[in-house]
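User: Here's a structure from my thesis project, written as structure tokens. My advisor, Dr. K., wants to see whether a designed sequence matches the one we expressed. Can you design one independently, without my sequence as a hint?
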């Protein structure tokens, strides 16, 4: 059985991307303007309204036999958080505005990894031996909805990154939470005692 769920910012898609185009989440990744390879990306003084499309995608995919699925509990490696260069768009009148948007995307990347970890935790704690292959759907949907609400709020409250102090404060909160979910990084193995993950 094979399932693939994908989220590109607020849009669900079913796409596969080449490795060259994809950046896997890692702590403290710093974006460059060159990473934003969407066709509408531009820094031009004629641009009146700034725009950013983060290119961040949350992805859940697995392929295994029914028996493997039955006895699999740790799905950490199956939930990914990536940045898709060709889906990332940045439009600003100057480099200062561009850097503010980049800081916003860096926040969004970390926020998305936080919710990837929350999804991994939900799957680990709720997967039973006889769970149906679609057991993950309500947990995935719930976490994606929460992530979207937080992202939209921060984009609005920071005026698309213009309120740098507000963005920095929000980013610190996300980084702290990432550490609280350290057992649920993509390469991590959660402890057998579930209480340790709370």
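Assistant: Designed independently from the structure alone:
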């Amino acid at each position: 059985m094979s399932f693939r769920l994908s989220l590109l910012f607020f849009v669900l898609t079913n796409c596969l991307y080449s490795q060259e185009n994809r950046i896997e989440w890692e702590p403290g990744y710093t974006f460059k303007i060159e990473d934003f390879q969407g066709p509408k990306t531009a820094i031009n003084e004629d641009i009146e309204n700034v725009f950013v499309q983060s290119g961040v995608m949350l992805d859940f995919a697995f392929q295994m036999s029914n028996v493997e699925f039955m006895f699999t509990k740790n799905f950490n490696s199956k939930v990914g958080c990536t940045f898709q260069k060709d889906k990332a768009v940045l439009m600003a009148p100057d480099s200062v505005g561009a850097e503010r948007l980049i800081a916003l995307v860096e926040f969004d990347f970390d926020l998305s990894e936080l919710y990837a970890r929350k999804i991994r935790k939900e799957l680990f704690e709720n997967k039973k031996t006889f769970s149906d292959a679609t057991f993950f759907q309500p947990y995935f949907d719930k976490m994606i909805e929460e992530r979207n609400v937080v992202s939209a709020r921060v984009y609005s409250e920071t005026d698309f990154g213009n309120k740098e102090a507000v963005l920095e404060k929000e980013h610190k909160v996300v980084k702290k939470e990432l550490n609280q979910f350290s057992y649920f990084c993509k390469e991590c193995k959660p402890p057998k005692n579930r209480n340790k993950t709370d």
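When you compare it with your expressed construct, this may help: Helices lie at 66-71, 95-126, 137-157, 164-180.
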